[in-house]
Amino acid sequence: MAVVAQCLGLRVSEILALQWPDINFGELTMRVTRGVVDGVVDEVKTECSEDDLPLDPDLATVLLSWKERCPKSDEGRMFPSPITGRCYHASPIQQDYIRPAGRKLCLGDIGWHTFRHTYRSWLDSVGTSMGVQQKLMRHAQIATTMNVYGDAMMESKRAANSKVVQMALRPALKEAK
Questions:
Q1: What gap in Å lies between CA 144 and CA 6, rounded to an integer?
Q2: Residue 68 pLDDT more than 70?
Q3: Mean of pLDDT values over 4-27
C-alpha cells in the first residue's frame, strides 16, 4: 500500500478500494474509480479523481509479484484483509505501521497524506509541468496542486535559487576577474 501511495500519489481511500481489474498490465495503466472510507465503498472524491494513470513497468512488476501473494477476496481487491477479505480501515494501518516506521526512520509522525505530498514534491523536483502534475494528482483545480501540495524539495529550491543568483551576480563576477 505504501509503495502504491508513493509511486502514484493516490489518496488512501483510493488505495484501499483498488481491485485487480483496475489494472491493465498490458497497457500499463491503472483506472481509479472508487474509494473506501470507514469500510464503505463509494465513487471517488470528484469527477476529476476518476481517471486512468500510467503504470511504470517497474511498479507493474512489483504489483504482479504482490498479486501472486495477495490474499484472495470475492471482489478481487488488491489489498484485502486476510481475515475478512474486505477493505482495511486507513487509521489503524497509519497508527500501527506508518507512524512507527516514520519515527524509526527519523521522519517524524508521517501519515497517509505524507505520501501524496511527497509525490507532488518529487514531481516538481524532476521538472514535471504544473498541468501534468494536476492530471497525475487528479485535482479539479490547478490551484489545489499549486497551493495545497506545493512544498518544493530543498534540492529543487537550491538549484532554482542558484540560477537566479548566477544571473544576478554574473556582472559582478566578471568585474571581479
A1: 19
A2: yes
A3: 94
Distance between CA atoms of 64 and 58, rounded to whole angstroms?
A: 10
| Direct distance between the N- and C-terminal alpha carbons of the chain, in angstroms, rounded to an integer | 56
CA separation, residue 64 to residues 11, 61, 105, 148 (Å): 21, 5, 27, 33
- Nearest CA to 133 out of 124, 4, 113 is that of 124
Give the burial class of 38: count Cβ atoms within 10 A of its Cβ; 0-12 exposed, 13-18 middle, 19 or more buried: exposed
The pTM of the whole model exceeds 0.85: no
For the chain, the structural domain boundaries read: 2-176
23: β partners: 30
Please give the single-letter amino acid code of residue 37.
V
The grid coordinates listed for 14 are 483510493
Task: Give the separation between CA 99 and CA 94, rounded to whole angstroms.
Answer: 6
Amino acid at 1: M
Cell of 136: 497525475
DSSP state of 51: E
Q: Which amino acid is at 75?
A: E
Domain made up of 2-176: CATH architecture = Orthogonal Bundle (1.10)
User: Do the Cβ atoms of 136 and 149 come closer than 8 Å?
Assistant: no
Type of residue at 81: S
